[in-house]
Design a protein that fits this description.
- About 60% of the residues lie in helices and about 10% in strands.
- The chain is α/β, with parallel strands linked by helices.
- The chain folds into two domains: about 240 residues, ABC transporter transmembrane region fold; about 160 residues, Rossmann fold (3-Layer(aba) Sandwich).
- The strands form two sheets. Strands 6-7-8-4-9-10 form a six-stranded mixed beta sheet, with helices on both faces.
- The longest helix is centred in the middle third of the chain and has 52 residues.
- It is elongated.
- About 5% of the residues have low confidence.
Length: about 475
């Protein structure tokens, strides 16, 4: 799990994978599948004797058993019996493989359907208020019940096929371990004395029993092969992503795009020949235009989330203290104190090493000081569901609190004040100016324009980019 998580969070793969590979659904479910896949190997969800098979001790034990009883047969000049256990084992393997073939795709579909079913409930929780305003509970219930029926039907098919496989596997193991050895020995040596018959029969039976254990494991493995496939698909998708290259010129004093075409991950060219140049300390630039013309896409390319075109140049600080992004809806940590929410993405060392008054002053600046003064919360209070506590406007204020705590030279704002009153918007932009933070903003509100020194207008007519100075 740690290895896959390392790949997932490396080079922004967690963002690039779902945007570039639409076939990989429900990545959160696939991470849960990793545990199931590991359990299928370690044996924590299968019988102990089966789980031991893939351990070094289990493999050595089976190998020693087969070798020992094979040598015993050679001592009794019973080499003819050596072929039959392996022939029977090969035939039984083919029969069991045919019986297990449907299990893998059914297991794969089961994990896929369970992931979609869980995701639907997560979305219903996330958009509960919108659904309630629409009075959409009947439609949501109908859709989720249909999804549950799919899960139930597929699970029934999986149980039936697993039962058939278990029956076939049990018959094969019993026949190969107890019945066939005696029949083979009796047919091949009808005149053998009882002592020799018993020894040869015992050796052949032990060889076939050891081999039949492998068939038993094959049944357990087939139940998880679909799960393993989903995990493998995710890892393969991550490794197939192109290596993330440093496609910008590093500069701590300048933020610029020069002749850059903005291209979506699917190859669609959204905006052509974007050109602007901002020096450290300038007010900055605001990108404006109708919805759907690629304004936010300019920011994604500038921030390095999208690869730029082969032509053109991007100049910006490296990732770290030089540049900071404030989205329209700030991400809220699932767990963590108010200190940790403000300090994000910096770690625990910044939280514990910063005096409390720094955090309280920032909260006052962004208009969230009442979270502390009314006595409901404290800076160090854990397990507060901030995602539910904070409204949309309060989350935007939290975004500016993070901006002021990190205090970069440049900030990228994507509709970051759309849910705030104009007077607070003015105070926040004025604080950015006081701290010397130069801005690149996307906005619809005309009230944002005075806080920038230039406007970059994007329209739909051939994706033409225009630029004009603010008077």
């Amino acid at each position: 799990t740690r290895v896959v998580q390392g790949l997932y969070f490396k080079d922004s793969n967690y963002y690039r994978l779902p945007t570039s590979n639409k076939e990989l659904d429900n990545l959160d479910q696939r991470f849960t599948d990793i545990k199931l896949a590991i359990n299928s190997v370690t044996g924590s969800m299968v019988p102990v004797e089966t789980g031991m098979l893939l351990s070094p001790a289990g493999v050595i034990s089976i190998g020693v058993s087969v070798l020992t009883f094979t040598l015993n047969l050679l001592q009794f000049q019973a080499a003819a019996y050596l072929y039959w256990p392996y022939i029977v084992f090969a035939v039984c393997t083919v029969l069991q493989w045919l019986a297990m073939r449907p299990v893998k795709p059914i297991t794969y579909r089961q994990q896929e359907k369970e992931g979609s079913f869980r995701y639907s409930h997560s979305r219903a929780r996330e958009y509960a208020e919108s659904i309630a305003f629409y009075r959409g509970e009947t439609e949501e219930r109908t859709r989720m019940q249909a999804q549950f029926q799919d899960v139930y039907t597929n699970q029934t098919h999986l149980a039936l096929f697993s039962a058939v496989c278990s029956f076939v596997s049990g018959v094969i193991q019993n026949c190969t371990s107890y019945i066939l050895p005696g029949v083979l020995v009796k047919l091949l040596t009808p005149d053998a004395d009882p002592q020799q018959y018993n020894i040869i029969n015992s050796d052949v039976a032990m060889i076939m029993e050891a081999l039949s254990m492998l068939l038993g494991f094959a049944l357990q493995y087939s139940a998880f092969s679909g799960t393993l496939q989903r995990v493998t698909q995710m890892v393969t998708g991550i490794k197939a992503l192109p290596v993330k290259k440093t496609d910008h010129i590093h500069s701590d004093e300048r933020l610029a795009m020069r002749g850059v075409d903005v291209i979506a991950p699917n190859g669609e060219r959204l905006v052509q020949n974007v050109t602007f140049d901002i020096e450290e300390g300038e007010k900055g630039l605001v990108v404006m235009g109708p919805s759907g013309v690629g304004k936010s896409s300019v920011l994604r390319t500038l921030a390095g989330l999208w690869a730029k075109s082969a032509d053109g140049t991007i100049v910006r600080p490296g990732d770290g203290d030089g540049i900071f992004f404030v989205p329209q809806t700030s991400y809220v940590l699932l767990n963590g104190s108010l200190r940790a929410q403000i300090a994000y993405p910096k770690g625990e060392e910044c939280v514990t090493g910063t005096p409390p008054h720094v955090f309280s002053d920032i909260l006052d600046t962004v208009g969230l000081g009442y979270l502390l003064t009314d006595g409901r919360y404290s800076l160090d209070q854990e397990n507060v569901p901030w995602g539910d506590v904070l409204s949309g406007g309060e989350k935007q204020r939290l975004g500016f609190a993070r901006l002021f705590f990190n205090c970069p030279r440049f900030a990228i704002l994507d509709e970051s004040t759309s849910a705030l009153p104009v007077d607070l918007e003015y105070r926040l932009h004025r604080e950015c100016r006081r701290m010397g933070i130069s801005l690149v903003s996307v906005a619809h509100r005309p009230s944002v324009i005075p806080h920038h020194s230039a406007i970059l207008k994007v329209d739909k007519k051939g994706w033409v980019l225009t630029k004009e100075k603010v008077e």
